[in-house]
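Example 636, ligand coenzyme A.
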Amino acid sequence: MPSSYAEVYRSWQEDPDGFWMDQARAIDWFEAPEKAFDPDQGAYGRWFVGGVTNPCHNCLDRHVASGRGDQAALIYDSPITGTKRSLSYSEMLAEVEAFAGALADKGIGKGDRVVLYMPMVPEAIVAMLACARLGAVHSVVFGGFAASELATRIDDSKAKLVVTASCGIEPGRIVAYKPLLDAAIAHSHHKPDATIVLQRDQHRCELIEGRDFDYAELMSANRGRKVACTPVAATDPLYVLYTSGTTGQPKGVVRDNGGHMVALEWSMHAMYGLKPGEVFWAASDIGWVVGHSYIVYAPLLHGNTTIVFEGKPVGTPDAGTFWRVIAEHNVAALFTAPTAFRAIRKEDPQGSLISNYDLSGFRALFLAGERADPDTIQWAERVLGVPVIDHWWQTETGWTIAGNPMGLGLLPVKYGSPAVPMPGYDVQVIDDAGHPVPAGTLGNVVVKLPLPPGCLPTLWNADERFHNAYLAEFPGFYKTADAGYVDGDGYLFIMARTDDIINVAGHRLSTGGMEEAVSSHPDVAECAVIGIADSMKGQIPAGFIVINSGVEKSDEEIEKEVVRLVRDQIGPVAAFKTVMVVKRLPKTRSGKILRATMQKIADGQEWKMPATIDDPGILDEIAAVMTKHGIARKAD
Ligand code: COA
Ligand code: AMP
């Protein structure tokens, strides 16, 4: 390996605290931290204890003060509405101060939670940074989630206020957010005091007198207002982002202020190789961790211009959209999910639309969010002629666990591997009993504690759940819930989840949560939902239902109702469209549904008859139903 990565990684191994204290110097502190990691603080140790800072100051004020005021902080490019808008660092600061003033007038202060249910518009980023400015804790909910998911998040975070928009825009349809928000508030036990609604011309909504306030009116009343940054502890929470757990109850991943900024700032130059002033584009959504880290905080911390893209890789208007955005805004690096590239490739297999654009300023493509299949990486390398870099991380970590660090000098690429661990992460592969496995052997991928700065210190109001979910099974390690192996050169290969989480178009979803929705159908006696391989989305969910005896409706009718139920309870993002009625589900003698075997059958992988199976004949029945639905490719 070239020395740079190896040297940097070794320097962290030799002196972890010294390494991170050095990186912390890139951040403005109102009071400098006393030390890097303090194992005695919080339930499981905390980073940069004693440090006092503010993330909004670091993202905006300090750049304006250092002469970056006229540089674009954010470029909004919305092919779906035909809108483009650029906001300089000074303009962004003014917008954020005005909105922070409006929030403060509504009683929002340090530690209060604010839920954001917003499409990809600049106002969403303004709202996030305004919360950060006040020391309030934002919790962004992805627009593709249904009302009940929103209600769960309002309840768990006990949000004092919700910021939303009248609508989101999906190809071919307007998603009216206000009825979803109203339904969520009606269902939630905890009621927010107020909502602020951004009215969009595509679809305006009614406001409830006394509860709902108009974004534009509040902004015009507050323009020009100065609102100081509230000093916050490095260890105070900046945001809570809910992510799928193993049940329908999502996990509230907590991000702190200090460690988060230090890690993201380091990653911008070391991992992504960006210099301040350059344009960075994460084609994701602010509802996901990629959006939090790399649309909002990291690029702004680093003095970059960030792109807020409201559109899809294909169909808005065509598979050349990404190339247009890169050329038009001189994007140096793009970060997206492999699915986006599979979608583009399907529409434009030769990548011929690329030649319509000048991509000479484009240096690298970064992929994450799901396993990057070698075929997609190689296609992207071929048509773009730039490095295509897979990197692996999770909502919980907030930044790269393993990657090929562009800023430290790229290592040779091994297709199918996100390369090597970043400083801060001592990644190991162990068997179920906790013993290290030899190179090349599949096992549980774990990270030796402590986790580096930026990773979750705990779950929102749920220390015990945090401990049980991540720390209890392998004492001394954080369980990633990914299975994989390390090869002889130290490259990591991430192969699958060890729990019931599936990855649909780079979106993390829980099959357990979907089962809860499916089984709420009155005619469903029992069910199983598994993730099956999909050439475009990586995985898609498939449901198997056993219907109560005596039900008179047709199977097709119930299947349709179940699909509708999941869409209504979880949201369209679940992409739950396949349901099959079966007579029985395959189970072990102790009653455990054999989901893993069902998945192998669906994916055409080799499978063995489990020794503990209750009735071997059921698997043949299931395989036959799958074949009938065109799913099982090889069930032998
Ligand atoms: N608000 C409301 N609905 C949304 C939504 C949002 N923000 N985002 C997605 N949806 C809906 C879609 O409209 C679709 O609904 P439909 O069933 O009525 O068609 C459903 O959720 C599934 O959406 P999606 O997964 O986006 O699939 P798609 O078929 O519409 O598009 C791709 C396919 C490949 C273009 C799309 O998945 C994509 O851009 N993927 C990139 C992945 C990505 O950015 N991941 C983020 C992590 S890095
Ligand atoms: P999320 O929390 O939505 O970012 O999803 C995290 C999960 O996505 C991980 O635990 C992995 O299962 C998967 N994942 C993310 N990036 C990669 C990658 N580069 N390679 C393989 N799997 C990945």
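Summary: Residues 424 and 452 are 5 Å apart (CA to CA).
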